[in-house]
Write a structure and sequence with these properties.
The protein has 128 residues and is mainly alpha-helical. The chain is 52% helix and 11% strand. The chain has one domain (3-127): hpI Integrase, Chain A. It contains 6 helices and 3 strands. β1 (33-35) and β2 form a beta hairpin. The longest helix is centred in the first third of the chain and has 16 residues, at 3-18. Residues 111-128 have low confidence and may be disordered.
Length: 128
């Protein structure tokens, strides 16, 4: 019910679906969201760690999160992303409220089984 918890939860879920790191989420701007030939919105961004160009389709859930916070970020950024230290404390509180004892960090979100499955499925499509 706390807006800060809701924001951190939504941003974490967005990263789980897109595979973006905290830095990439923080720097995500409206210019990175593009509509392509298939009429779907895609994130078009250079990865922070490798500088490799990444294109990720906004599926239903991340698209809803994008629409929910669109325009709330400062300086053309998509999201009002809190500082990393504040996010870590909030994630711990959320996990405790949910009864999750496993340590959860932001890094886990971009390396979740779900985001790996999306990447792997995309590689399978390319190979076909």
């Amino acid at each position: 019910k706390k807006p800060k918890y809701e924001l951190v939860r939504d941003l974490f879920v967005f990263c789980c679906f897109t595979g973006l790191s905290y830095c990439e989420l923080y720097n995500l701007s409206d210019d990175n969201i593009r509509t392509y030939f298939d009429d779907h919105e895609w994130i078009h961004i250079s990865r922070q760690k490798t500088t490799v160009l990444s294109e990720v389709q906004l599926l239903d859930i991340p698209k809803m999160i994008y629409e929910k916070y669109k325009g709330m970020g400062e300086g053309g950024k998509v999201f009002p992303v809190p500082k990393y230290s504040a996010i870590l404390g909030t994630i711990k509180k959320i996990m405790k409220l949910c009864g999750i004892e496993k340590e959860v960090t932001w890094h886990i979100g971009s390396h979740s089984d779900f985001s790996f499955s999306l990447k792997f499925r995309y590689l399978q499509i390319l190979a076909a």
